[in-house]
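Thread: iron/sulfur cluster complex, take 2
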Amino acid sequence: MGLTGLQIQKLLPKTNCKECGSNTCLAFAMKLAAKQADLSMCPYASEEAKSVLGAASEPPVKCIELGADKKLRIGEETVLYRHEKTFVNQTLLAININDDENPEIIETTLKRLSEYFIERVGEKLNIELVSLTQKGNDPYKYAALAKKIWEKTKKPLILNSPDKKSILLAAEAVTGSNSILSSATHENATELKNIAARHNHSLAITAETIDELIALAEKLKAEGFNNLLLNFKTYSLAELFQINSIARRMALKNNYKPLGYPFLSYIDPDKTSDELIYLVTGITKYGGICVLSSFDLAQLLPLMSLRQNIYTDPQKPIQVDPKAYPIGEPDENSPVFLTTNFSLTYFMVSSEIENSGISGWLVVPQCEGMSVLTAWAAGKISGAQISKAIKEMNFEEQVKTREIVIPGYVAQISGELEECLPGWKVVIGPQESADIESFVKVKFKK
Ligand code: SF4
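Output below.
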């Protein structure tokens, strides 16, 4: 929890000198509490104020940046449930490779995971990391493979090995990738931390119990290393669910720093036949990184969709740009349809038009990412607004068609739309996109 303005004011010099741009220290403290100012704006802030306020302004879950450009981020969460505000950084997915696998299989896996992506509601979804688990006993072979993976995929790695020398060589070989060393225990934590710090990697830590893990996180933080991930040892689905929930609750509700790090979850496929269920639990229960034991398309697709659904900001629906979209290869005489710019609606309607076997235009006005009925209820889809959008798109100059099919759910705007769009005939289409195909057959394929 952050400090209040009055608590912050007690830490300030109280001279009201105005050099920070505020009239009084109290006014400045209020701005600090609202995160509208930075303590560095007060040249007279004491060391005590800097240390107390610095700690108070840290996010409850540490941000870990990965990859060469550090654009992959995990952590920074502030809420337990998405509907409270939003989740910030989505769970990253990693594919595991064992270093003793057949080199040809490794080669194929690397190619597949590098090329793999799916496009869903206008977003490109892919695999972010590769986990390299050491099963063999040759540190040089392990490090060489790590280097190869990094060079081929340009994805950061999770260097998962119990052997210090292997980690050391591999960490050095992938310097610049901002990867993760996994997983330090009480016995080797200080040495692995030094390796991670030297090569700008993060460090996952593990322990038999949550108390031991807390002690380890505190020790490493006291030694000045804070780029940590927590790898809880759990032995059942219930335990995974429970520990992830407890740890995140402690971090967010109690601002308990030793548990305020992203989680790294490995599911051992030898111990469960339900890897997918574990992965789903990992994603839904605050997973920072979930590692799949192999490249499996049947697992990836539902996991990617689930992750996208959870990590979409509910306050910012996924939208497509407002414009007139060609579906197929329409010409100036092709039918014209209308829908809203909520991505799910757009993709459902456009694919149904496509499936119906005709080419047409799909006019999408700006509806702030709302579905048809919501947009109508919010006054975002009216005759005047649609007519304005069509004029702004210069759409009347693109087509000779003067008939527009509107969703059946907004049949009531047809009169107003005809008034606002002189020369156009408004046709009431089906309510559900699933009925577009049969509608098209009757209307346009006589
Ligand atoms: Fe107070 Fe510092 Fe602002 Fe001066 S600069 S008014 S001391 S907070």
